[in-house]
Amino acid sequence: EAGVAQSPRYKIIEKRQSVAFWCNPISGHATLYWYQQILGQGPKLLIQFQNNGVVDDSQLPKDRFSAERLKGVDSTLKIQPAKLEDSAVYLCASSEGQAHYEQYFGPGTRLTVT
Amino acid sequence: GNSVTQMEGPVTLSEEAFLTINCTYTATGYPSLFWYVQYPGEGLQLLLKATKADDKGSNKGFEATYRKETTSFHLEKGSVQVSDSAVYFCALNTGGFKTIFGAGTRLFVKA
Asked: Per-residue pLDDT averaged across A72-87, rounded?
């Protein structure tokens, strides 16, 4: 069974530039998550999709971050414009359902904003 | 609100030593509790979980018991190996949408 795929693995941009990350979840998983993991901290949920609908985006900085999940499968997360404090690893995860279900994580995208 | 507190790392042990990583939580209701592990250069993966009080989760020699009376879910292993070197995250979910992760504890095991 293929795991969660993410690309790119690494990205370096200057502040005020834009960037996009892509995630392909495990086939059949209805729930998709984007997390931000700052160095030395645990993952923080940015947005959660159930199929192609948003169920939680309370911690997504909506003035600069956006995410979509077209057709309930792949997802993209965009930052525009980036700030220095956006430097982090962006993790995508998927699960069969919500709450008590195991989440399967991708390898992450390490973003450096200079 | 809901939260998870883990012991600070790094934890450095010699091979075959006993491991304990403390985790306590604050939650409304009856959460499910998880331990995830992150090996260098990889994403997080579930190590074990427990969904109700007094449950014991176990996997790969690791164990954790859901203690409601002390709101704890400490991770233990009787004999660590170099290959166990990783970052360990305690997490909870109260049945709502969001899983809350602790800050992580880095483990180094020396040969």
From this structure: 96
